[in-house]
């Protein structure tokens, strides 16, 4: 593992690479990137954030929310994502979501070491909100479980719990995608182009957020058969029921608005996932689950407009306090 060095987010942000060896999916040497915000002088707990598909960590306001409350804040750019992607690698591609356990375990070890074993709250957005519960379920089967590993709770921000769209895509369509994945896993699925969500966010279009559009393209990364099959297998595991072993908070919008092009309605709804599916499957996490719909929230509730964003942070504060965590 490398040492900490300055990150592109500027003052107060550092990163280090986590070497992961040879890619099991045949795309050379891979690594992940752990980012940290300057920790408070008196660290009371820690947070590890995991992004979603076509995404990476850039949400400085989220980091500062936690550090103001005494948390050491860390975020992980997964293999082939954001800061971690190398030339010739297929963006975000894995054939099994369990492969991410390697960088998640390594990140947790670094955080526990740097914070003298303080409790860790996990936070995941979209696909990251599926990856984290699957990892925790495996972690919870080990001696001591997830609590013994230092995990105190989970905050999931619009987690991807099911495949959005028409019902046949979750049955016949999923089987067809799986068959193609067996022979041509990295072939791309032909989907209608859309930049509605991306342009709703970026400061050069209709939004207020400045992020790297190479790491997070406004139109998103293309979707491959193999990657989507890995996601569908993970979602099927969730639907059978997980046991993450710690309390969970699930944040989501109150409505969905699918669109190919931007309109103001996209600013006040989830333009990526079906919020009804999030509501339906949240109970499959196990342990204590709190689901909080946020009126007017975007897909990423923490980069919504000001009012729903503040409501989301207030909800997190209340949930942390209810579970005896710094708030």
Shape: globular
CATH topology, what is it called? Rossmann fold
> Radius of gyration in whole Å, from Cα?
18 Å
Q: At CATH's second level, what is the architecture?
A: 3-Layer(aba) Sandwich
Structural class: alpha/beta
Q: Return the CATH class.
A: Alpha Beta
Could you give the distance between the termini? 32 Å
SSE sequence, one letter per element: EEEEHEHEHHEHHHEHEH
Number of helices: 9
Percent helix among the residues? 25-40%
Question: What's the name of the CATH homologous superfamily?
Answer: Alpha/Beta hydrolase fold, catalytic domain
**How many strand segments?**
9
What does the oligomeric state look like here? single chain
Give start-end ranges of low-pLDDT stretches: none
The fraction of residues in strands falls at 15-25%
Main β-sheet: number of strands, strand sense, barrel status?
9 strands, mixed
Features:
about 325 residues, alpha/beta, Rossmann fold, nine-stranded mixed beta sheet, 9 strands
Descriptive report:
Residues 42-256 form the Serine aminopeptidase S33 domain. This is Alpha/beta fold hydrolase. By secondary structure, this protein is α/β, with parallel strands linked by helices. It has one domain (5-161, 235-257, 269-322): Alpha/Beta hydrolase fold, catalytic domain (Rossmann fold), CATH 3.40.50.1820. The chain is 29% helix and 18% strand. It contains 9 helices and 9 strands. It has helices at 60-67, 101-114, 128-139, 145-148, 172-183, 196-201, 225-240, 275-281, 306-322, and strands at 5-6, 13-22, 29-37, 45-50, 71-77, 120-125, 151-157, 248-253, 289-294. Strands 1-2-3-5-4-6-7-8-9 form a 9-stranded mixed β-sheet, sandwiched between helices. Strand 2 (13-22) and strand 3 (29-37) form a beta hairpin. It starts with a strand and ends in a 5-residue tail after the last helix. The mean pLDDT is 97.
